[in-house]
From TrEMBL, chain A:
Keywords: Membrane, Transmembrane, Transmembrane helix. This is Cobalt transporter. It comes from Streptomyces chattanoogensis. InterPro entries: CbtB_put. It holds the Pfam family CbtB. The chain crosses the membrane at residues 23-42. The keyword Membrane applies. The lineage of its organism: Bacteria, Bacillati, Actinomycetota, Actinomycetes, Kitasatosporales.
From TrEMBL, chain B:
The chain crosses the membrane at residues 9-31, 71-90, 102-118, 138-157, 169-189, 209-230. This is Membrane protein. Pfam families: CbtA. Keywords: Membrane, Transmembrane, Transmembrane helix. It comes from Streptomyces chattanoogensis. It comes from the Bacteria.
Amino acid sequence: MAQTIAAPAAGTEAPAPLPLKAIAPWALFVGVLMLVLLYFIGAEQGATSLLSGTDVHEWVHDGRHLLGFPCH
Amino acid sequence: MNSLTIRNLLVRGMLAGLAAGVLAFVVAYFLGEPRVDAAIAFEEGHSHDHGHEVEVVSRAMQSTAGLATGVLVYGVALGGIAALVFCFALGRIGRFGARTTAVLLSGAALVVYLVPFLKYPANPPAVGDPDTIGQRTALYFLMMLLGILLAVGATLLGRRLAPKLGNWYATVAAGAAFVVAVGIAYAFLPSFDNVPHGFSGTLLWQFRLSTLGIQLVLWTAFGLLFGHLAERVVTPARQAVAAEPAPVAS
């Protein structure tokens, strides 16, 4: 009986927060990189174009429609 | 040590996002693609200039490798972002363990997806005026950003109200404030009616339902998988004692 009470209590114990100073550099560099990826999947050669042509748009065309981005 | 923990969580977030992306791709291919094809057939039947556009990428590639690229990169990128938000949220949003935090985060991501979707829903090919693509894209992302800011605001409001109202009523009040704020934004932002005459209502509904199915599968899979992986990163000692025999040095 004591065991069944002790086990979930250990599981629901809230972990200590990770320090913001340790998160910040990862959030900045990786976060920006991820947003750039999302931009190329979601909007490049649609609303705005960094690259000329329509290759990127055509390649991810179906994904753009099905992921809910405005495509054209 | 903490930076290492964050790196481990980030890598697992991106891997969980990739795996969730694979499942989302299966849903997109089997539920979404038939509707995309039907919409393209309508578009070609009703195009004003009857000359065919030059096909840069074939339909066969768009519906397989192209779709996979889109969905998998989307999964990895959002998995990484979700892992970063998880690093911040863990231990800060209440007394929740890693798995519960991951699932709550996935739920929040679905809400953030739904906020722009209800105003600017996903459109199949043939629906949408190319002349307004810039405006629609800007409004879509504006609405998403607004959803994120309002969700953060509602969370802060809920935490502030909790001592006075108790957890349950504080959460209800914060949720209601969120819904009202989003409703006001819906009322004031412009709408678009781009559905061409004769386009099947059933097809439009099935297409949009399939896009919601993709998100539901993506985030459910991500929340459960990342929660499982994150739990092992956050509490490695307990896991090792509970589940594994003493590791042999390799």
